[in-house]
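_Full entry_
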Amino acid sequence: MNDQRKELFILEDNVRPGILVLINDADWELEGEETYELQPGDNIVFVSTLHGG
């Protein structure tokens, strides 16, 4: 991941609370989280579950 934007997604070496990570439209927890090895053509999406009021 580009270090310039890493702080948007990572906090203390973990994905920030409120960020949903999808690998090929599946929750990354179902794919093994950090043990998953990215494959060519994988689609990675970061979704914020937080919103203002």
Summary: The chain has a mean pLDDT of 86.
